[in-house]
Amino acid sequence: MVCRREYIARIIGHRTAQHELQAATVFAPSNIALCKYWGKRSIELNLPVTDSLSISLQDYGALTTLEVSDTEDALQLNDHNVIKNNIFYNQVFDFLNLFRNKEAPFFKINTKLNIPASAGLASSACGFAALTLALNRLFHWQLSAQELSLIARLGSGSACRSLWHGFVHWHRGVLEDGLDSYATVLPYHYPQMRVGLIVCDTSPKKYSSRQAMIQTVRYSRLYKTWPLCVEEDLKLMFESLEEGNLTALFALAERNCKAMHATLMDLPDSISYSTIETYQIIQHIRSLRDQGLPVYYTQDAGPNIKLLFEADYEDVLKKEFKEMIIVKPFV
Questions:
Q1: How far apart are the first and last CA of the chain?
Q2: Distance, CA of 256 to CA of 236 (rounded, Å)
Q3: pLDDT averaged over the chain?
Q4: What CATH class does 4-185 carry?
Q5: CATH number for the domain running over 193-327
Q6: Domain coordinates of the chain in residue numbers?
Q7: Left if phi > 0, otherwise alpha if psi is -120 to 50, otherwise beta: which for 140?
Q8: Does this chain's domain 4-185 share its CATH topology with 193-327?
């Protein structure tokens, strides 16, 4: 298996390691998986067991400033200092350690999120995508989008999908060196699509996605069927996108979400990211659907719910879910 430093060297090649700028500021959107990334075939390189499909959240994500320092490392999140040995601090600098050199011995990072961190809203995805874009600008690598996706994946798997707006397909790849596991943006554009964010709980998760994935792959009996579920769901999702059938796409996303969470419940010590409010919202969505309203949901590794619906139903759903944040991915 290729180590991470060798992997980075293969991507960057002989490009200069000297920084052209002292600091770089970039934005990367968060993304929500419609067909989930759940489980790694390589923990070292964040290689997934299956492909996945996501939709980006337009203006919701991470605005990150990366600065070269001669004195010390420092990390700020929403203008608050993150202490050393904090889990988030360690993840960020474990990633940035791959790019240190005599010209850039230390890094200072200031990241501003307009979504809650560690709550299942892909804050790590947009955060590491923004860091990757900032590194590219800082060191003037001039890497392609595909190469940047390969690098972002090392920070957080789903970060490889947060370099674009719109629908993004992450290809699992088959190579052991991981150089064929990257994301690509899809050509579909549906201005009528809406994503409704319902934040139930902003507190940090008890179980990180990384921990839960490892446990699921090792111990969940249902996980054996997961790759087959994804293969079927993705095939039907791509057909729905091609036909412009968003209702079918949303229904498939909900089905895929429920299958993912079933693998967690099948663990010897079950993991549930849902709160009482999460269950109440899901029940309300089902009730509205029984009344003829075509609204669906998805849920990642956190308690928060994302509604999937079309613009025609925006007004009625705003009345049903008054605290919902409405995202228009293509407007």
A1: 43
A2: 11
A3: 94
A4: alpha beta
A5: 3.30.70.890
A6: 4-185, 193-327
A7: left
A8: no
For 212, the token pair is 């839960």
pLDDT category of residue 262 using cuts at 50, 70 and 90: very high
229: left (phi over 0), alpha (psi -120 to 50) or beta: alpha
pLDDT in tens, 251-260: 999 999 999 9
* Cα-to-chain-centroid distance, residue 255: 19
Two structure tokens written together for 32: 């929500």
Cβ neighbours of 201 (radius 10 Å):
17
| Res 203: pLDDT | 80
In this prediction, residue 309 carries a pLDDT of 98
Please choose, from the candidates 63, 74, 120, the residue with its C-alpha nearest in 3D space to the C-alpha of residue 96.
Answer: 74
pTM, 2 dp: 0.95
Both tokens of 131, joined, read 């860091």
In the chain, at which residue ranges do the beta strands (DSSP E only) sit? 23-35, 40-42, 47-48, 52-69, 74-77, 80-81, 106-113, 167-170, 183-185, 193-198, 296-298, 305-310, 325-327
Q: What mean pLDDT is predicted for residues 130-149?
A: 96
